[in-house]
Structure formats: structure tokens, C-alpha cells
């Protein structure tokens, strides 16, 4: 049985930087023989988490940390920003009927991450937010 593969990266706040993380997931998954389907799902969740972290942490916060621990059965990803934080329980789920007729189509991030993860833990405070994504790979 292969050992877990771990990766820690500090992503600068520049366009398309989330591609570095998702390419890394693809390489790690290929090394461990994880199905493309499971890796593709994980890539969507991680992309959303990184984009949200960069966008909501504020312009003067120049990076986010991403840590991945991938084994044969489970992937654990931590995405940490250093922004002002938020209250996750106050974020309302988007209503599809309202969004269809609205000019503001965004706001699906947390719902998407929750639906595509096996567990999603959000820890947020005045010094930043850490999202823990747990995805079963079997």
C-alpha cells in the first residue's frame, strides 16, 4: 500500500493561481491510482475554496495556504486565508429561482463545496478562515 502524499503550497493572489493546486491534485491522484472521477470532484471543490479565500480575504492579503494530504481512501485539504473572517451560519443557501432572474449569479460556493465534500469544516475568526475539505476517494 502506498503512503499518503502530502503537499503544502502558498498561493499568491494572482489570476488563475488555483490551477497550480488542481494540477497538483491530478498528479497526486495519478501517483496513487485514484479514479479520475474522484479527483475531478475534488478539483472542483478545491478551486471554489481557493477562489473564495483569495476573493474574500481582502486585497491587502497577498496569499492563501493550501495543504493536501491524499491517501488511497481519503483526501484532506486545508485552505487558509488571513482575512477578516465571516460567520458561515449566516450565509444563506442560494435560491435557484431567484438567481436565474438576478444579475448577480454568484454565491453558490459554500453550497457547492458542501454538496461535493464528504465533510466540510469552516473555522473563521477575525484573523482568517480555514476550510477543511474531506473527500472519500473510494
Q: Can you tag this structure with a few keywords?
A:
single chain, 138 residues, alpha+beta, 5-stranded antiparallel β-sheet, 4 helices, 36% helix, globular
- The overall average pLDDT, rounded, is 88
Instruction: Please outline the major beta sheet.
Output: 5 strands, antiparallel
Q: What is the succession of H and E elements?
A: EHHEEHHEE
Amino-to-carboxy terminus distance:
14 Å
Strand content: 25-35%
In the predicted model, the low-confidence regions spanning at least 5 consecutive residues are: none
SS element count, helices: 4
Descriptive notes:
The structure is a single chain. By secondary structure, this protein is of the alpha+beta class. It is built from four helices and five strands. The protein has a five-stranded antiparallel sheet, covered by helices on one side. Strand 4 (119-125) and strand 5 (128-136) form a beta hairpin. Helix 1 (18-32) runs antiparallel to helix 2 (36-56) and helix 2 (36-56) packs antiparallel against helix 4.
Amino acid at each position: 500500500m502506498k503512503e499518503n502524499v502530502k503537499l503544502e503550497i502558498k498561493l499568491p493572489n494572482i489570476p488563475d493561481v488555483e490551477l497550480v493546486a488542481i494540477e497538483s491534485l491530478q498528479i497526486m491522484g495519478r501517483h496513487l491510482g485514484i479514479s479520475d472521477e474522484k479527483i475531478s470532484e475534488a478539483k472542483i471543490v478545491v478551486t471554489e475554496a481557493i477562489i473564495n479565500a483569495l476573493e474574500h480575504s481582502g486585497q491587502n492579503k497577498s496569499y492563501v495556504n493550501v495543504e493536501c494530504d491524499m491517501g488511497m481512501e481519503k483526501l484532506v485539504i486545508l485552505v487558509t486565508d488571513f482575512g477578516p473572517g465571516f460567520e458561515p451560519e449566516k450565509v444563506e443557501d442560494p435560491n435557484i429561482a431567484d438567481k436565474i432572474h438576478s444579475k448577480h449569479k454568484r454565491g453558490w460556493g459554500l453550497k457547492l463545496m458542501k454538496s461535493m465534500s464528504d465533510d466540510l469544516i469552516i473555522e473563521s475568526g477575525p484573523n482568517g478562515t480555514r476550510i477543511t475539505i474531506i473527500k472519500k476517494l473510494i
